[in-house]
Amino acid sequence: MTFQQVHRLGFLAALGLIGATASSCGSPTPPSKITDPPSISCPPLQVAQSQDRRPVLVTYPDPIVTGGERPFTLSCTPVSGASFAVGTMSVTCMVTDAQRRSSSCTFPVMVEVPPTPRVSVTAFVAFGDSITRGEDGRNSTAFRQSQPGRVRPLNVFPDPQTYPGVLQAELTARYTAQTPTVANAGCPGEKITDRGTLKRFSDDTGGGRYGAVLILEGANDLESRDATVVPAAIAGLRQMVGYARMGNVRPYLATLTPMNPAGSRGGAWSLVPGFNDQIRILANSEGVTLVDVYQALNVDISTYIGFDGLHPTAQGYAKIADTFFAAVRQTLETLVPSSRGVVKGNLLGRRIQSPSGAAVVTCSPP
Question: Is this prediction's pTM over 0.85?
Answer without folding.
Answer: no
